[in-house]
Amino acid sequence: MRRLDPFHAVAAACTLLVVAFIVVPLVEMIRQPTAADLKASILDADVRRAIWLSISTSGSAALISFIFGTPFAYLLARRDFPGKRLVESIVDLPIMIPHPVIGIAILSLAGRQHWIGRLAADLGVRVMGSVTGIVIVLTFVGLPFYINTVKNGIEAIPQRLENVSRSLGATAFGTFWRVTFPLAWRSVVVGMILCTARAVSEFGAVVIVAYHPMIAPVMIYERFTAYGLRYSQPVAVWLIGVCLVLFFLLRWLNPPAGRTRA
């Protein structure tokens, strides 16, 4: 019998510990609510409304990231310019900033004290306590995941293909839509799923900008503080189900190691 190398034994032990650390609390939480609790929860109109609001606003954040983040990701992937590393660091800032700080920063702009807030009010746009405010927050936290994913996908595409297209007379815009985008579509979709998944889980920034209307993470917090585990767990289980669907799509679209990435 082949003897197990000590390093591989330690690696296997660490793997088991990490997997157990992640899986055991989630399995225990999913196991505790009864089928009746889950049924009663999903039949609650407020729960369905909160879950749908989480999904729809997260999807809106992903769509906004697609529209504005795709050209930006292309620029980062294909061009070198002074301050590029600084720009890339700024893009990653929402990942590192404490999320209540994000909510406070957005409210600082949306208030009457700031010219942007006054302009938004004059245009009839309300940020505090609105779906608009939720979408702004979720776009803020999800955008880095989209940009980084699409940037990496475009970098994996040989630039000579674009050069050939341009040499044949295609414009830069035509080259992007006819050459680059069809090859990068998988990265675009994966980026949108990552953005949506990140946005679905956001709580800290949203609760500052818009406690109401209530998205699912805020509802879980509200029910936990008001009624305890029994009433918050079923909602949490349904939200975990949404996240599992998103990550199943992510793994299905993400090609295995060794395959050519689009």
Explain what the structure shows:
The protein has 262 residues and is mainly alpha-helical. The chain has one domain: MetI-like (MetI-like fold). Helices cover 79% and strands 0% of the residues. It has twelve helices and no strands. It starts with 5 loop residues before the first helix and ends in a 9-residue tail after the last helix. The mean pLDDT is 90.
Short characterization:
The protein is mainly alpha-helical and 262 residues long. It has one domain (48-78, 86-253): MetI-like fold, CATH 1.10.3720.10. The chain has helices at residues 6-31, 35-43, 45-78, 84-96, 99-110, 115-122, 131-155, 159-167, 172-200, 206-209, 216-227, 229-253.
Dominant shape: globular
Order of helices and strands: HHHHHHHHHHHH
Determine Rg (CA atoms, Å): 22 Å
What's the CATH topology name? MetI-like fold
Count of separate structural domains: 1
Poorly predicted spans: none
Q: In the CATH classification, which architecture applies? A: Orthogonal Bundle
Q: Which range best describes the helical content: under 10%, 10-25%, 25-40%, 40-55%, 55-70% or over 70%?
A: over 70%
CATH class descriptor: Mainly Alpha
Number of helices: 12
* Secondary-structure-derived class: mainly alpha
Note the beta-strand portion: under 5%
What name goes with the CATH superfamily? MetI-like
